[in-house]
Amino acid sequence: MSANVQDTIVLFGDSITQGGWQPNGFAQRLAYVYARKLDVINRGLSGYNSEWAIPVFKQIIAKKSEQANVPGIALFTIWFGANDACILPSRQHVPLPRFSANIAYFITALKDPESEYYSENTHIILITPPPINTYQRGADLQSRNPPVALDREFEVTKQYAEAVKEVGKRHGVPVVDIWTVFYDAVGRDEKKLAKFMDDGLHLNAEGYEVMYDSLIQTITKEFPEIHYEKLPSVFAPWAEIDLKDIENSVQANRFKI
């Protein structure tokens, strides 16, 4: 049984997406501004790369034959790369060409009319991995018992961020280039990325604030029709309830996304 009458925003990614539920995280803030308009579903998967995410995608996205009976997805964000960019021998590593193919898979699965997961009204936004702060990350890993060798490199992560932008350009999908936003904001000084990060990899509250603002700017520019200020409430405002016909006046309005 499903009690959900609101369409959704689905956030799909790794631990950086999963962490978006922390206080003032980008997922929490989206849920607040889209309250009574779109439900926010966070499918961040700590430790996952784009390869492992494919079978998850197939389980969380309704097939065309099932979509009439479930809430629609107004916005689907894809935020992988931070784990794919791990250097060998990490088991999280995904070769760059394969990573690009995986990101393209998610797009075509939703946008190709021949796909069993085709979702005509779903808007897609890609997000690049943030830059890695190897100074912070290295210190964090060395503090563990036993110490762990550095598992990511600055320039390698940059390559995966560039790959996301290339896939977005090729498929006509907007990209939140958080890699560049963060790096430019600290004067392109890797050590200063600590401003946005807890451990050189995961975002702190200030990092999520910048991430949220960047995502909202992209929605405003690319998909203004689903900006939270443009969407009506699914249920009628209290002042519009007909006291003589309460039952009918509060029926859900599933607006077309």
UniProtKB/TrEMBL annotation:
Instruction: Note the Pfam families from the entry.
Output: Lipase_GDSL_2
Question: Which residue numbers delimit the SGNH hydrolase-type esterase domain?
Answer: 11-210
Name a single GO biological process: lipid metabolic process
GO MF annotations, alphabetized: lipase activity
Q: What is this protein called?
A: SGNH hydrolase-type esterase domain-containing protein
PANTHER family named among the record's database cross-references: ISOAMYL ACETATE-HYDROLYZING ESTERASE 1, ISOAMYL ACETATE-HYDROLYZING ESTERASE 1 HOMOLOG
